[in-house]
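Changelog-adjacent note: as of this version, every example in the card shows the full chain rather than a window. The one below runs 213 residues end to end.
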Amino acid sequence: MALAPVFPVWLCPLPGPLYTVLMGYKEAPVNEARARFTPIVRSLLADFLVAHAACVTAAAGGAPEIVLPVPSSLRPGGSPLARVDGLSSAVEAALPGARWSPHLVVRTGEPVGHMHPSARAFAVPPRFRPAVAGRRVVLLDDTYVSGSRAQSTAAALRRAGAASVVIVVLGRVLRPDRVPTHADFLRPLRRAAALGDVARPCGRCVQTLAPTE
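Full-length structure tokens:
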């Protein structure tokens, strides 16, 4: 099955401030830290979707109808993004007509790991398949390293009959300290790798020369 297109909101080199936010909102041991990072996550996603709704719509082949976070493959409580206060209403406001539906995809128990995607690691339960069939779906994730979880989730949705799946991820993780090609890629883009204005051209704007801003 073909890979789903990916919209990275930000490049996320390690170490860096964005990675601190994306790990902190879900893993910080101090409640105050999680409370400080969570609104940043909500704002970054919502602002990007507002600025680039036309780009996401074009990639999906029409207006998105369903939005959901990529399920966690390990956390018993499900996706951390599903627990971000106000994210559901912010996403639905940014993509009019789309429905926030975080429970449409579940884990199956088949392993999925770094660089090991599995088309069977996630599934749409039978009772939800009519809601997915023929729909255009946007998947949200916080970090994208190899993309195994996100692409495995996209495969489950397509297998359930989704017309299209587009992935929007807050941070495309890069390791310039370990991967020379990452360092070479980032060198002229250091300004774009920091937190800042999400209204800049996204990957699709650049390719089509048709910015949505």
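Structural remarks: The chain is about 35% helix and 20% strand.
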